[in-house]
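Q: Hand in one record:
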Amino acid sequence: MRLIGKVTGLGAGYLLGGPFGALVGAAMGHQLFDRPPRELFGVPISNREVKNSVFFVATFSMLGKLAQADGEVSEEEIASVEGLVRSHFKLSWQSAKFAFKTFDEAVVSNDSFESHARTFHDQFADSPDVLVTMLEIMLLVAHADSVYDESEEFLIKSAAAIFGLDDEYEHILHLFKYQPDNLEHCYDLLGCEASDDTDAIRERYEHLLEEHDPDVLIENGVPKELTNLAEEKRKLILLAFEQILRSRGLPHDGEDQ
């Protein structure tokens, strides 16, 4: 992640000294989003790099505040974030160090989770797929210890409300609760009912595939390293749709149409 090298080399502490939105905005300037490329302390930086940086800092800041939700950060929560960084996202050593610093700074800061969520929404309001990705990353960490407690759920639901995704929350949650191991779960994964006609289900399926398309997410500002989760959910969506088509006696990918 090229920007992380630029930011850390130029003083990550300046970016992490408070709410990620206010500080990234102060360091880079809101005008940076209007007429890229600009400069960060004299170093050229593109519009996508700015969005990559905001998304990256936001991810680990909000995970820090989420871990703090019940009043303390447990060893299990720290381990889940470390596992996310090292195994799931496969970040470079430099990016991982930056991620952990961001997480630690967020844990000890007085800024609210909601202030981070509002600033993130302000930057990505025109990209609902990016907002969904952020919710999914938070849900991934919240479910890492197999216990989704009330304090975590309260904060993630508040983020969904701030993102304008109240109606999508339950479906996004289903992507973490279910596998396409039976027909009922397949409908749950797609957010459909068994009574829905095939055209409506196909439309929903295509919407979800686009929402979880790594190339689209990268174009909209998600760092490539953080798109692995979307690819995993995309596979679940595909399997669920194929099972539904099979149950209706309809051809699916890999069969004669």
